[in-house]
Write a structure and sequence with these properties.
The complex is a heterodimer of chains A (about 450) and B (about 90). Chain A is of the alpha/beta class. Helices cover about 45% and strands about 15% of the residues of chain A. Chain B has 3 helices and 4 strands; from the N terminus they run βαββαβα. The chains are: A alpha/beta (about 450), B alpha+beta (about 90).
Chain lengths: ~450, ~90
Amino acid sequence: MLNKGEILQTIEMISQQHLDVRTITMGISLRDCADSDIKKSCDKIYDKICRYAGSLVKTGEDIETEFGIPIVNKRISVTPISMIAEACTEQNYTPYAIALDRAAKEVGVNFLGGFSALVQKGFTVGDRRLIESIPQAMAETNLVCSSVNVGTTRAGINMDAVAKMGEIIKTTAELTGDAGGFGCAKLVVFCNAVEDNPFMAGAFHGVGEPECEINVGVSGPGVIHSAIKDMKAESFDVIAETIKKTAFRITRVGQLVAQEASSRLGVPFGIVDLSLAPTPAVGDSVADILEEMGLGSVGAPGTTAALALLNDAVKKGGVMASSHVGGLSGAFIPVSEDAGMIRAAKLGHLTIEKLEAMTCVCSVGLDMIAVPGDTSAATISAIIADEAAIGMVNNKTTAVRIIPAVGKTVGDIVDFGGLLGTAPVMPVNSCSTVDFIARGGRIPAPLHSLKN
Amino acid sequence: MTAIVTVVGKDKVGINAFVCTLLAEKNVNILDISQTVMEGNFTMVMSVDLAGCTQPISELSNALRTRGAEHDLEIRIAREEIFDAMHRV
C-alpha cells in the first residue's frame, strides 16, 4: 500500500519541481515513400505521417490527464529524407521539408525531425542535394528539424562535410536572420548520431528501426536539484546515491508513459531516453544542480567533474527503471534553454571552451550556443571538427547546434522564445582556421586498442 | 480503476465535506482517506474507485481542479499506477 508521504512526494515533484515527460516521439519509417516523381513522394509522406500519427497528440494528452503528469512535447521522427528523396531527380529537396511541415501541423505535433543525411564516410547524390537544401528548407518551414551526421567512431570524420556544414549553418542563419537565426536552432551536426533519439532537433528514425515505434524522453533537472539541495555537508558518495535513486523514480514514470502510449497507439515501444533536459523555467536547470554541488558558478573549475558524476548517476539510476534504454541518455547542456547556463554565460563564467570540455562527459555537445554574426564559416566548421573528434575518440555522441547571430556581437542577446529560450552571444576564438578546413578529406577512424 | 485524489490548501471548516460531496456527485467511491493539518495547511490523500464514475477521468480531473480552485484548494487526481511506478520496484 502506498503511503501518504510517497504520494505527496510525487505530487510535489510534478507541481513544484517541474517533473515532466519531456517528449513522446513517434518514429515513422518513410522507406516506402520514395518515388521518382517528387510530388507523388511528398504526397505519400504526408499521407503516411497523418495516418500513423493522427491520434498521437490526443493520446498524449489523455495520458497526461489520467496520470497527472505533464507530457510537454509530442513529436515525430522520420527516416533521413536524403534516403527517400534520392529516388527523384530534383536538385532541391525543400518540397520534402514543406510536406513534412504540413503533416506535422496537421497532426498537431510541435516538431518533426528527419530532414537529415548520414555522411560520415562520404556523400551520395541525395545527401549532397539534401545538405544544399537545408538553409531554404529551414527558412520555409516552422516545425521541421534537420541533422547531418559527419563522423562516427568506426568511420572517422568526413572533413568535406564538416567544411560544408560551416557554410550551411552560416547561410541558414542569414536566411532566418529576422527570427534571430531560428533556422540554426533546428539544425544539428552530429558525430555518432543515434537512430532512436526522441529529442529535437537531432531526432531521426534510423534505418535499423521498425516501421513505427514510440520513444520517450524523460526529464527532471528540478527534481534532482531539489533532492540534493539540503545536502551541503554530504560527500560525493551520498550525492551520487541520491541522484541515482531520484533518477530511478523519474525514469519509472517515463517507462510507464512509454508503455501506456505504445499500447494505446498499437505501436511498439522503442526506448526511454534517460536525459536530464533543462528548460528556461526557473528551477528546471542542469546548471543549478552543478552549482548545488558546491560550484560558485557553472563553468568554474570542477564543473566537468560535477557533470561527470551527475551524468553517470542519472544513467545508473535510470537503467534499472526501464526495460529498454537508448537515445542520447545523458544530461543536456543547451545554453539558451537553461536559466543557470544563461546566467553564467552572461557573466562570462561559462565559455565555449569550458562547454567543449563538459561535452566530453555528458550528452550531447555544444548545444544552442549563439556566436557573433561575423563568425566565419571556417571557424564554425573547426568548432564542429573539435566536437566531432571528442565524439569519435570517446565513442559517444557529440553534436553542434550553434547559431551565428546575424548583426549581433558578444554581449547581445538572441531570444528564440518558448523552450528554446534566450542565448547570450558568446565570444569565439577568432584565430584563422581557413587552411585547416580547406584541406578536406577524412580524419581516419581511431584505434580501438592501446587505450591510454 | 483506482485513482489517488490529493487535496492541498489552507485549512478551513468543511473541506472534507465539500470534496466528499463533489466525489459523491460523480458517483466516485472512496476507498481510503488520510488527512492532516499542519501549521494551518490542509493536506488530504484519498484512494478512490472510479468504476462507477459518471464521467471519464479527464473530465473528472478538470471538474475537481475547477471546483477546487473556487474554494482555494488544489485538487488533483491521477491513476494509482504512476505512484506505484515511482515508489515500488
